[in-house]
Amino acid sequence: xxxxxxxxxxxxGALAALLAAGLLKPIAAFAASWNKDAFGAKSAADALKSLGxxxxxxxxxxxxxxxxxxxxxxxxxxxxxxTVPGTTSIAVLIDKNPFPLVGKFDFMEGALPFVKVxxxxxxxxxxxxxxxxxxxxxxxxxxxxxxxxxxxx
Amino acid sequence: MAAGPMKMRATLLGGVTDVRVLMSHxxxxxxxxxxxxQLVPLHFIQNVTVKVNGKTVVEGQISQAISRNxxxxxxxxxxxxxxxxxxxxxxxxxxxxxxxxxxA
Lengths: 153, 104
What we know:
The structure holds two protein chains of two kinds.
Chain A: H1 2-20, H2 36-40, H3 44-51, E1 57-58, E2 62-65, E3 69-72, E4 76-82, E5 87-94, E6 101-107, E7 114-119, E8 125-133, E9 136-148
Parallel strand pairs in A: 1-9, 3-9
Antiparallel strand pairs in A: 2-4, 4-7, 5-6, 5-8, 8-9
Chain B: E1 6-13, E2 16-23, E3 45-52, E4 55-62, E5 71-77, E6 84-91, E7 96-102
Antiparallel strand pairs in B: 1-2, 2-5, 3-4, 3-6, 6-7
């Protein structure tokens, strides 16, 4: 019996050590998913494949508002809207960033397929926005030139 | 640096609720060198959630390529003055923060 107790204590100690080392993360307060494969992809094509949107159709109904030339790559304002009816999701990719996928937004319950945010760009690149509506994927592409990159230091 | 304050504004304009939210976060890319010449480890927001009156309307997954101290704009169709908007985020270190405001 005493042996069992020792064993348990040792196991508990090991668990605490793992937690301290950050190897086991406590489960976050709210259930959140993060597409590790898509965000870890090093090419836009791979990222799109991980998102299940490898063959998007070019569409004029996906609109990217962004400057043609961004002076500071650390802060590039982009505004995205999809007027494709029934758009449920929008993904943003910057082809030449080390990890092209910047974000994916799912819209429901009356949220409009719109997002405006500042992004970092390492160098001049095509920016791709993929909208998903009814299981189909639509894409718009736009080139943004960057004067000073925003990824290094 | 841990999570700083958040700021949010929600306004009803022409039948659309416009939500602007600022999050204080370093959004480290893991590629930048600190003053000691060592790479600053990855530290960035991964999930952003927008709720209206407790119902989720936008679920965003983002990468380290979002700028430091991110500012997001979202739009929600309809809505009424006084509706409760809640925005929360979760980063890769498990830190989280949220803020609430009423539609004006």
